[in-house]
Design a protein that fits this description.
The chain has 78 residues and is mostly beta strands. The chain is built from no helices and 4 strands. The strands form 2 sheets. It has a two-stranded parallel sheet with strand order 1-4.
Length: 78
């Protein structure tokens, strides 16, 4: 996730908490950066045990990484 200040947070590096939030074209959360911190907010009720997802939006992959969310409205690539 790019933070807008020339840095990015990669959930696959150093086991940080971003590894628990996956991409979906139909997300159940959204994220914002506020005062240098990343915050997640629910878009709807999230059931116990349900995967947390957000839309990654534009990424450094420039539309070349295949999306695997399997949603009916899947954009196909990130």
């Amino acid at each position: 996730m790019e933070t807008g200040d020339g840095y990015a947070i990669d959930g696959s590096v150093d086991g940080n908490e971003f590894r628990y939030i996956n991409h979906s074209c139909t997300p159940n959360t959204f994220m914002r950066i506020f005062r240098g911190r990343v915050e997640f907010y629910s878009l709807r009720h999230i059931a116990r045990g349900e995967e947390l997802t957000c839309s990654y939006g534009e990424t450094h992959h420039d539309g070349k990484l295949r999306c695997k969310c399997s949603r009916s409205n899947c954009h196909g690539f990130l």
